[in-house]
Fold these 4 entries.
Entry 1:
Amino acid sequence: MSEKRPACARAALDPQYVTLDVTYRCPLSCAFCFMAKSSSALRAGPEMTRADLRRLVDSLSGRPRKFYISGGEPLLRPDLPWLVKYIKAAGHYCRVITSLSHTPASALELFSSGLDELTVSIHGTPEIHDACVGRPGAFSAIAAACAAFNAARSGTPSKLLFWCTVNRANHAVLHSVYKALAALKPDALAFHHLDYITSRDLAAASAIFREELGCAPGLKVSQEMAAGISARRLFAQISKIKAEKDPKVRLDLNLSRGEMGKWYDPGSALEKKGFCISLWNGIWIDPAGNIISCQPLGHRLGSALKRNVLKAFNGPVYAKFRRTLVGHGGFLPTCSRCGRTAYMSGNRDTSRQHGAGKQ
């Protein structure tokens, strides 16, 4: 049976987005980190060499793409400024996602490397953020680094985006967090609902993986991260932020009061709206050069180094996983608390869907 997929992707797939995790090492210990709490991926392991990265970028340079460099903490790679320059020289868009928790001299080189966007993970007022990440002075370091970035990008189109994850420590004072972050003058500020895995969803996903893919998902139950979050108080704080009418603010996702109550109740079953198309319009590569479904799931779908990456993206292993996703309505059970916006809302009939997603 041929693969059923969005109408925009019936020809050979040629991804617009490339998410490149260059390391899973991280110096922080965030209590709400999906990578640490929900994924079995090891923080230490093989990482692509500079030669590997050069070959990978070259193999994807047949058209302009959007490269998102992430981790772990990508600033732990001293060759990060070189990689950004190489990607830009090949004509691509380049975004770096970082906690700015490791800011050696190479960070200043990164700021002047020509990157299009710096996305900074920052999760509270100075006191709350420092407690969240387990490092005193972390907020002050970010503030200083962002001031340096703003100076370095003067006169360029580079953007500064803040990414704030809702969690137990910040949810009841999120409006104060908004004020503290807005004072650092980002171009955009995104609030992201907490990602976690419930025991019910993992059991359902494990059955699908066992029966249809012959393996187990690399995930762990992490529903304890939702404990102590009051959906009522969070909704009130988000309402105050919305009342500011700040065009720089984005909510991932924009949940109703009822939806928010279910999101933060691990006992509630959630059914996602829409259809995830990130497996059609984007490719995600882990530090060792494995093509993965996405970092949250971490399901391996081939190697980006052992064969032509676009052939692997269009190969039988990837196609089988896409068929599994389509067969279950466009999301797997463990996707229910994923707030990433790389999917379309509305009609689930993939034979008639079209359009582009955003990662």
Entry 2:
Amino acid sequence: MPQGSILGPVLYLLYTSDLPTFEQNVVAAFVDDTAIMAIGDNNTELTEKLQAAVTKVQSWTRKWRIKLNETKSVHIDFTNKCIEHKPIYIMLFHMRTQPNIWA
């Protein structure tokens, strides 16, 4: 399908309509970018929530044979607390994501 075609957006919506959703996370998708957001009281809680979501998305991509670009996949920690930063590592296809922090 050529870029800019009339059917492109409709086919994309149909193809991704069963993207996993999560009780404890928010999934935001725009065109071909997807973000998974989680809120928690500590790094351990966040890591568990995000890893569970990433694992489900990985299963979904394997099922539909969608290739993710692991080199562009990152996670960012946002915090408004003065805490000692302990990096969170999320596994994506057996690769640890590079953590960033925004305080």
Entry 3:
Amino acid sequence: MLVEVVPPNLQINGDKQMLSRVVDNLLTNALHHTNKGGEIRLRAQRNENNETVVTIQDNGEGIAPEDVPHVFEKFYRADSNKRHATGAGLGLAFCRLAVEAHNGRIWVESEQGKGSAFSFTMGKAE
């Protein structure tokens, strides 16, 4: 696992417990869908709009294109990911609600067989 924070003293304003759970959910999903010896990268940085962007990227199995629009829906499970199913299908729905409660947005970019990158923004820095 690689961690990259730019600048090193980057701070996020928000509910620490809720945002920790978002990151934990995304990292747990990355771990479940990345083979042994794979790579997971957590990156936090500011974008051109002065928003904090957090990305958890893996080089795992990826998500089928037809599943990508639905991954943040309650109880949704992609067919290819059912072998990893241990929860109720609420983790990514929680992430979406928590990020939106902080005036942010969340999205995924994925290519089947090459991995996924889940990103979310937090509001503009003060």
Entry 4:
Amino acid sequence: MTELSLVLLGVMPVLVIVAGLHDLTTMKIPNWISGVLILGFFPAALVLGLSLTQVATALAVGFVALLIGMGMFALRWVGGGDAKLMAAASLWFGYSGAGPFVLYTALVGGGFCLMLLLARARLQVFALNGPGWVARLMQPKGDIPYGVAIAAGALLAYPSSPLVRAFIGG
């Protein structure tokens, strides 16, 4: 059971890393990543023994995150893939991990945006010799791949997830 628990606990970190890297290099987050995050939550919750109340709370948190993400997308603050990734990842955090997830994502996102804006202003010459995705990333008024911040926030907040806490017995 422990090996299965570890494999299931690894689903979220692996998928958010893939999403962050994909967003960084293509400015897109494939829908399959958010779909697998959603589907992967349920066997993890079952194997790790989350209560029906905890699962329902996680669904509510994910739904609220989806609504917030839709609003942010409507305001053009994030892309559609970012909004879906945020909602799907939120499912893994439930109520206890939602605050840390939002806080870490915001802090990493702010730092990443400032770093990228500074790099775009001062390091344009390096973009000329790099791969195509670097040149696209360094466009002066280009989009910012916020999936990177969502992925980092998810990884940093994961220890506060009810799934991780159930695994370690807390």
